[in-house]
Write a structure and sequence with these properties.
Order of helices and strands: EEHHHHHEHHE
Shape: elongated
Radius of gyration: 29 Å
Strand content: 5-15%
Number of helices: 7
Strand order of the largest sheet: 1-2
Distance between the termini: 97 Å
Number of strands: 4
CATH class of one domain: Mainly Alpha
CATH topology of one domain: Cytochrome Bc1 Complex, Chain D, domain 2
Structural class: mainly alpha
Largest sheet: 2 strands, antiparallel
CATH architecture of one domain: Orthogonal Bundle
């Protein structure tokens, strides 16, 4: 058997001559098959039925896990005692923190210090006089729509209550670089009303 002959392409750059090394046939076949597969993949996962993409699958599984976790709680009520109980419960506050990270960070900042929305970490409030008002503001919005109503997006009452409890837990953390206080100071959450 003779050794393969190296053929030059006739191209030279900086004194370096280029050899003609064609790709192996198996590699070209795999590349062509993957290109054909990509067309079907794109059509199926990007233009196919709703819920087939990875993000929708993740969201569905996360919702299922939250429903299982919320099953342990029963149905929470948006009253003072419940909010005070869960604002210090780290296990359940994580669910409220997750909703805050999804819905509230763009306006209130990741630490609640306020960007275009108010600072949630000080003791001054514009639309809240007691802890139960947090739920009302989340549900119905405030300031003529500047704070949007979330009742159509946060539809699970437990998630709403736990989000409000998380917002209540931010009070007094006074993050550096937060917005200046707005509104009037109100007594501590656990003070008698």
């Amino acid at each position: 058997m003779s050794a393969p002959q190296n053929e030059l392409t006739g191209h030279e750059y900086d004194g370096i001559e280029e050899y003609d090394n064609p790709l192996p046939g198996w590699w070209s076949t795999v590349f062509a098959l993957s290109a054909v597969f990509a067309v079907f993949y794109i059509v199926y996962y990007h233009f196919g039925d709703e819920g087939l993409d990875d993000i929708s699958s993740y969201d569905a599984e996360a919702a299922e896990v939250m429903e299982l976790r919320f099953g342990q709680l029963g149905t929470l009520t948006a009253d003072r005692a419940t909010l005070l109980q869960y604002k210090d419960d780290e296990k359940w506050l994580a669910a409220g923190r997750a909703a805050f990270q999804v819905h509230c960070v763009s306006c209130h900042g990741k630490d609640g210090g306020g960007l275009v929305g108010v600072n949630l970490t000080d003791d001054h409030y514009k639309h809240i006089t007691n802890i139960e008002d947090i739920v009302k503001v989340i549900e119905d919005g405030a300031a003529g729509g500047a704070m949007p109503a979330w009742k159509n997006r946060i539809t699970n009452v437990n998630q709403l209550v736990l989000t409000a409890a998380y917002v209540a837990s931010l009070r007094g953390t006074n993050v550096a670089g937060g917005r200046a206080p707005e509104g009037k100071p109100i007594p501590a959450w656990d003070a008698a009303q």
